[in-house]
Amino acid sequence: xxxxxxFRSKSVAVFGLGGSGLSTARALIAGGANVSxxxxxxxxxxAAAQExxxxxxxxxxxxxxxxxxxxxxxxxxxxxxxxxxxxKANAAQVPIIGDIELFxxxxxxxxxxxxxxxxxxxxxxxTTTALIAHLLKASGRDVAxxxxxxxxVLDLPPPSDTRVHVLEISSFQIDLAPSLAPPxxxxxxxxxxxxxxxxxxxxxxxxxxxxxxxAQTAIIxxxxxxxxxIADRCKARHQNTIQIALETMPDTGVGLEGTSLLWMxxxxxxxxxxxxxxxxxxxxxxAQNAAAAIAAVSQLGLTDDEIRAGLLTFPGLPHRLxxxxxxxxxxxxNDSKATNADATEKALLSFEGGLxxxxxxxxxxxxxxxxxxxxxxxxxxxxxxxxxxxxxxxLDGHMPYDRSETLDVAVERALxxxxxxxxxxxVVLLSPACASYDQFKNFEMRGDAFRQLISxxxxxVAMKKG
Length: 466
What we know:
- The protein is an alpha/beta fold.
- Helices cover 34% and strands 23% of the residues.
- It is globular, with a radius of gyration of 23 Å.
- The protein starts with 10 loop residues before the first strand and ends with a strand.
- The model has no long low-confidence stretch (mean pLDDT 95).
């Protein structure tokens, strides 16, 4: 835990008592603050009460003495309209902040030179964050990984000059962190997302920009127009700016040539890594993630040899093109995190063919129509969940398919058919392009179920980890 002593003896309101909210309340109490916590949910309040966190109905409380409102990032700040707790705080002129801001305040107070990498972006930020942390750990550094991935930031050990904090930070968290100024800021890319919470693309992009605009070193993927403009503004301010580019080779940064990632700096041009040898980083989208990670750890002093060694042992992330193992010569891939067609597109692009594709669930708008150009890569599809009928209509005449309806049936039939494929290494790919809520509580439970079904198959051999 990182006790938050910046508010010692002050009254602080905490709203939103999920995982990060409970973590925030505990850290403030440990630092000597007077906490008044609340949540709209009865079950969340009961969970807080079990931890002896002081509960105060903030809808009727006096706001005169609160030094700050610490808001859960899941609570609407501006769009589609401010939550009632936000209106209360604004009316009382109480600053609204989040747990990332509390971390930044503590870092400034106890270890202002502590190394800190902050990562954001629409896509790829979780893999980039995990890869940065893995490379640092593999080289023997003390690393604290968390934020919007895994462990809540205030549950991590405190900042110190010998510990590197590697934090994934969402746009919602950036909105609540006015003093965020990381030594190294990474922005992977920007595409339309969360517009219900940000209103417009311009506002969404401006929030993302804050993370790198305040960083000492800004590492920015420049293959999309929003990020190119942000990188241009950083360079115009003479900020140390490193570009990540797959479409063109950057003047200063990391680019892709074939399957090789090259470090470019003026006339200096050297190959850092060949991704062909790293199956956990297959796919063009992972080339961008790896490029950003290489740029970040290079700034922290890792050598090319250390980077190459770390890349080779990266295990990947659960449910994100996760290599579960082999059943005979058939490779099983768990990509349950692919809850929309855009994410599944990246999975289909990662393989040249021989795919036995398990797809379906609760469909998003547009279904799988945008994937039509990639259908030739699929030998057969296995349709599950609510979308089975509508997806069958989309696939009819384009590829063989089986209306399996449930995941267990799909896995059994896909493995059976893949075993007789002529492809050298056929792939059973769970990449649903759908939400899981029709048959599973979340995508993690769906992926876990797939993993269990595959591992129970005769002849299963698990992939070696790192």
